[in-house]
């Protein structure tokens, strides 16, 4: 298991979710992806995408103007 980072700052909906989806497709189950966003909608959109696709949101943090979402990749089965 490893941790990966995705810089989705200054991207507007739906691009943070699309970039998240593209990044997760390259990862293995159990890996984590830390997504740094500035679009406030990402704190709702990324968890919704995770629920539909079987991934877990480990945390959502807000630091100044950034939203940091940590996702654990689920099993593709």
Mean pLDDT: 96
CATH topology: Translation Initiation Factor IF3
CATH superfamily: TusA-like domain
Largest sheet: 4 strands, mixed
Count every helix, treating DSSP H or I runs of 4 or more residues as helices. Answer: 2
Distance between the termini: 18 Å
CATH architecture field: 2-Layer Sandwich
The H/E string reads EHEHEE
Structural class: alpha+beta
Instruction: Give me the oligomer status.
Output: single chain
Question: How many structural domains in the coordinates?
Answer: 1
> Could you name the ranges where pLDDT drops below 50 across 5 or more consecutive residues?
none
Please bin the fraction of helical residues.
25-40%
What attributes characterize this protein structure?
single chain, 77 residues, alpha+beta, Translation Initiation Factor IF3, four-stranded mixed β-sheet, 2 helices, 29% helix, 35% strand, globular
Summarize the structure.
This protein has 77 residues and is an alpha+beta fold. It has helices spanning 15-24, 42-53; strands at residues 3-8, 32-37, 56-63, 66-72.
What does this structure look like?
With 77 residues, the protein is α+β, with helices and mostly antiparallel strands. It has a single domain (3-72), classed as 2-Layer Sandwich (Translation Initiation Factor IF3). The protein is built from two helices and four strands, in the order βαβαββ. A four-stranded mixed sheet has the order 1-2-4-3, with helices on one face. Helix 1 (15-24) runs parallel beside helix 2. The longest helix has 12 residues, at 42-53. The model has no long low-confidence stretch (mean pLDDT 96).
């Amino acid at each position: 298991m490893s941790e990966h980072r995705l810089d989705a700052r200054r991207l507007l909906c739906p691009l943070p979710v699309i970039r998240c989806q593209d990044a997760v497709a390259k990862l293995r189950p159990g890996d984590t992806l830390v997504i740094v966003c500035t679009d406030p909608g990402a704190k709702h959109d990324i968890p919704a995408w995770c629920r539909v696709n079987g991934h877990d949101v480990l945390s959502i943090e807000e630091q100044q103007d950034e939203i940091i979402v940590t996702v654990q990749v689920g099993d593709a089965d």
